[in-house]
Write a structure and sequence with these properties.
Layout: H1 2-49, H2 56-78, E1 81-85, E2 88-92, H3 102-135, H4 148-169, H5 174-188, E3 197-201, H6 211-246, H7 251-288, E4 293-294, H8 300-317, H9 319-340
Antiparallel strand pairs: 1-2, 1-4, 2-3
Helix pairs in contact: 1-2, 1-8, 1-9, 2-3, 2-8, 3-4, 3-6, 3-7, 4-6, 6-7, 7-8, 8-9
Length: 364
């Protein structure tokens, strides 16, 4: 009787988790499609329709839109999942999604983490550019020509550091596999050792700290803390000194800087809610060793929709892009009208043997 009740309870639990997983997949799909569409639109507008020269910031915007596409695409294709349990979490993906080996899929999980690290890093790079543009313009030379590649190396280097930390510090061992084995099987119906996964448990059975896993938390904290500190520092400085600085600019430049500043304010709030806060919850919950079991991977849904929201912010706030959208729609309308116009009657000259042709005209 007890065994039957346990099986029934496990089945109900699996159904609840399946529904929740289907919801995250739907959000992920919406995020991927919206990011793809808005990203293509944004690059098209930036390259072909926006007439104002944004300088090197134009290149930053294009690179960031491409990075956002990679981030959203990797989340959609790999479908990373996290289940938090007491003093740890398991980071995994569905086995039946994989047409390749578990090791390849584990590399996919690591790649997703690396893109996340590169994304939050590149957000801070954009803030640094806007700060220098207002308060120390000569330093913008560091964003010109080949020196732009240094920022790409920096961002992808941060992403690589994050990936290496996940791969090295969260590799499965016997203790973590046993710790999560029953929970993963009861909730998802999978055997943990047979699926692509990484595991994190911060305390041993006796309460001692597992320093290898804790090192991963420390590494993530340092990366997030550094990038978020740059964002907050530059955002704070710009908010305080914006009025004084833009008062010395022309009306056109003043309007543009004000618009980008509004965009950057939202670009502080949105990633805080959708990127930084969910990750902080995931990595710090195990420290408190709460007695609970929950699929915190649903927070990854916020990751999926972030890139499209970030692009939408710029398209909506910066007037140059609103004007460019009108120009694009006007161009599309003119093309459609010209292609759909067919005259009802065509009066063409008919050449027959009885009708002499003008001199120099060849007969067909």
């Amino acid at each position: 009787m007890v065994k039957t009740f346990h099986v029934r309870e496990s089945t109900i639990s699996q159904m609840q988790y399946i529904r929740m997983d289907e919801l995250t997949k739907l959000i992920s799909k919406v995020g991927f499609l919206s990011t793809t569409i808005l990203g293509m639109l944004f690059v098209c507008l930036t390259v072909c329709f926006v007439k104002r020269d944004f300088g090197s910031y134009r290149n930053l915007l294009i690179v960031f839109s491409f990075l956002g596409f990679l981030f959203s695409a990797s989340e959609y294709m790999i479908h990373p999942m996290i289940h938090s349990y007491n003093s740890g979490f398991v980071f995994f993906t569905e086995p039946h999604l994989s047409l390749v080996s578990n090791e390849i899929m584990k590399i996919g999980l690591v790649f997703f983490c690396g893109i996340y690290g590169s994304t939050i890093c590149f957000i801070s790079v954009q803030f640094l550019y806007r700060y220098w543009a207002l308060f120390d313009a000569p330093k913008l030379i560091w964003f010109e020509g080949w020196m732009m590649s240094a920022w790409l190396i920096y961002s992808f280097g941060i992403g690589a550091t994050w990936s290496i930390g996940i791969h090295y510090f969260l590799e499965n061992d016997n203790f973590t596999l046993n710790y999560f084995e029953n929970g993963v099987y009861d909730h998802y119906g999978w055997k943990l050792s047979a699926i692509p996964s990484f595991t994190f448990v911060i305390y041993t059975e006796r309460g001692a700290i597992r320093w290898r896993n804790l090192a991963c938390t420390i590494e993530m904290t340092m990366i997030i803390g550094l990038q978020y500190s740059i964002i907050c520092f530059c955002g704070r400085k710009m908010s305080v000194g914006m009025k004084e600085k833009i008062s010395m600019l022309s009306e056109t430049s003043k309007r543009l800087h004000t618009q980008f500043f509004k965009a950057l304010i939202l670009q502080i709030v949105v990633p805080t809610i959708l990127l930084f806060f969910p990750m902080i919850i995931i990595i710090y919950l195990p420290v408190f060793n709460l007695k609970f079991s929950f699929p915190t991977g649903i927070l990854f849904s916020a990751f999926a929709i972030y890139p499209s929201i970030d692009i939408a912010i710029i398209l909506y706030i910066v007037s140059d892009y609103r004007i460019a959208i009108k120009l694009l729609l006007k161009s599309i309308k003119s093309v459609l009208l010209s292609s759909s116009y067919f005259p009802h009657e065509l009066s063409l000259p008919t050449c027959t043997p009885q009708t002499p042709l003008p001199r120099g005209t060849a007969r067909i």
